[in-house]
Amino acid sequence: MRSTFTGVPGLSATPDVAVVVDVMRAFTVAAWVFRRGAEKIVFAGTVDEALELKARHPGWLAFQDGAPLPGFDLANSPARLRALDVAGRTVVQKTTAGTVAALAVADARLLLCASFVVAEATAEQLRRARPDAVTFVVTGDGGRAEEDLACAQYIAARAVSGPTDPAPFVGRARRSDAAARLADGVRRGWGGVHPEDVDLCLEVDTFPFAMAAAREDGRLVLRPVENGSYTG
User: Fold this and answer.
1) pLDDT by residue (tens digit) across 61-82?
2) Which of 2, 34, 48, 202 could form a disulfide with 133, with the two C-beta atoms 3.0–4.6 Å apart?
3) Which domains does the chain carry?
4) HSE-up of 135 (CA within 13 Å, CB side)?
5) Which residues 6+ apart lie within 8 Å of 217 measured at CB?
6) Tens digit of pLDDT for each residue in 134-185?
């Protein structure tokens, strides 16, 4: 399995198999959403589209990154998610990096969205799919985010070599600019940031499911995938 690591600007064509990585915080939040019982996540391309989808579907929730915005139910914080009941719900997610990158490779035959909390489950999906090549899309900082690259390289190593010490990869993520920005946001009292967010984003192999995205009724929809159940 050949692994390529790139940002959205480096994509020349839609890859056959793509793993889109957003550690801090979109796909850590997504994993926690599924852990807490949500049915699915619908990716929105814009803030207006997210709010329109929520308005059109009573009972849906809408998440965004950055400071809390009117009409949204959560500002993309895994720790703050604990105060929100998502069981059985559909969540619309709009973020600056993760959802944008997923939409950019929406036509991949196999599209997985990942972070450290689902790293091993994602690697297992790749082992089962046995692709010749995988494109890992690094989403943060225009494709240069160290935390996303570290997570992508950890998943790639697990997929090819099996058991791999996560400590060096997590250490790189903990020292990343994104972790520093979140910590600074906590100190400054920014809305939508929680003191536990970084630690939750750096937990490894917390959940036994991967997350696969595919088009449904014209929308890109993310769902949890237990190992062995993907048939794409």
Assistant:
1) 999 998 889 999 999 999 999 9
2) 2
3) 2-221 (3.90.1560.10)
4) 24
5) none
6) 999 999 998 999 999 999 999 999 999 989 999 999 999 999 999 999 999 9
Tell me the three-class secondary structure of the chain, residue by residue.
CEEEEECHHHCCCCCCEEEEECCCCHHHHHHHHHHCCCCEEEECCCHHHHHHHHHHCCCCEEEECCCCCCCCCECCCCCHHHHCCCCCCEEEEECCCHHHHHHHCCCCCEEEEECHHHHHHHHHHHHHHCCCEEEEEECHHHHCCHHHHHHHHHHHHHHHHCCCCCHHHHHHHHCCHHHHHHHHHHHHCCCCCCCCHHHHHCCCCCCCEEEEEEEECCEEEEEEEECCCCCC
Q: What is the CA radius of gyration of the chain?
A: 16
Terminal Cα distance for the chain, rounded: 18
